[in-house]
Amino acid sequence: MPMDMSRREFIQTTVGTVAFLGLGSTLQASPVSDDLAFLTISELSELIRTRKISPVEVTRVMLQRIEKFNPILNAYITVTSEQAMKSAQDAEKEIQHGKWRGPLHGVPLALKDLFDTAGVRTTAASALFKDRVPQEDAEVVGKLKAAGAVLLGKLNMHEFAYGGSSTVSYFGAVHNPWEPTYSTGGSSGGSAAAVAAGLCFGALGSDTGGSIREPAAYCGIVGLKPTYGLVSTRGVIPLSWSLDHVGPMTRTVADAATILQAIAGYDQLEITSERMTVPNYTMALRSKTSSLRLGIPHEFFFASLDPEIDAATNEALSLLGKLTATVKQIATVPVDNITDRTVVAAEAYAYHAEFAAKSPEQYQQPTLAAIRAGSEIRTRDYIMARRELASLRQRIQHAFESVDVIVTPASPIGPPTISTFDAAYKDVPFPTDASDIRRLVLRNTGPFDKYGLPTISVPCGFARKGLPVGLQISGPHGGEAVVLQLAHAYEQATNWHKKHAVIS
Description:
Blueprint: H1 7-15, H2 31-37, H3 41-49, H4 55-73, E1 76-79, H5 81-96, E2 108-112, H6 139-146, E3 150-155, H7 189-196, E4 203-207, H8 213-219, E5 222-225, E6 245-250, H9 253-263, H10 281-284, E7 293-296, H11 298-301, H12 307-323, E8 326-329, H13 342-358, H14 365-373, H15 379-395, E9 405-409, H16 418-426, H17 437-440, H18 446-451, E10 455-462, E11 468-474, H19 480-492
Parallel strand pairs: 2-3, 2-4, 7-8, 7-9
Antiparallel strand pairs: 1-3, 4-6, 5-6, 5-10, 9-11, 10-11
Helix pairs in contact: 4-5, 7-8, 9-19, 13-14
């Protein structure tokens, strides 16, 4: 690419001549297609809308890249090539006739493999569901289809979302695009790997203890967990109904805002859905951050940080101080009982009890052990844990009386190797020791699932072996706009989001 030409100008100049040539045209893998694969959704959407690039060509490039790189990364479980090409063809025809549906029309996305998809298997990365084919789409899948998105397939994950590694999967471990011997984190590891490697332009993940933000941090992308109840979880295989969230994983904050806009909103058929105002998230990105007050909760969240994580976080905080009004330490974030797993263990057991009794051999051993541990929880303990959860969600609001956002490292440590996670999960009982790597990787993300607050991980640097570091920005209940606003301002003031993994 010429040094004086922007990526978007390069794509427009080079690819524009092959756009909308008809369904028989081809675009071979090349430096041009590599650049195309790493366009943002915002850039790609405008090129599709103005008919400078065809959704068919873009989808073909994605499928070529999946064929080339998925054997290395193992990010996809199922690739829906025929359906994707048909959706792309339909999108092209609609746009040609002036029926543009919006910024996701013709854009290739992918789904973590616990979102139900009508006629396409949804496995949750488990042998138990390896042949499970739902009859209906999950609510959010239906919304993406209505927005005109092209769905490329289903992404690998930690089995039943019950862990933070994406190594415990019937379909094998997901590999980190930055260094394939390292983990992507989890449970939305396939989603993070696919977005980071240019195998889709964005993906949906789920987050119960950090399963969007931890893998986003470990793969150098953006991962947004919305407020509990803002995005419907109907049709999503549950881990814990009281803690499950659904959100976007993208390469930029603006792209996360675009996907959130499409999937947010009240679902009257989902009991965990909550009526909330859904503002224009993209417009919110334009707001100035100079009046924002940042809170830094050093207790718990900054304890025992890896020195490289600590250095990257401090550098990010220094920059954020220049972008906002004030930065101050706060001690009002409730962390008592924050690592208690009673709710998730009891609710996971409630969903899996019958399956685990009838077909225990169909589970990976670490998952089965975690599920069975839930059977030992007494009714009284679960009720008291749910009461404490409600109390946490009420008390956390007091933290925002003097600050607008809370900033922490996304994880206290960098990505472990796949072999390290494999060794840890061979010690089957889920650990009670907070220093165990299985809990440590999710230490900073898990509290915000309990709080139910909107929170995002954005790239903030690199550590050893060139592995990414993530920064976590969190806001008050329903405060997605301010979270996106600050995350976008930080992103635009840095170049971390412009760096991409090179897979060999």
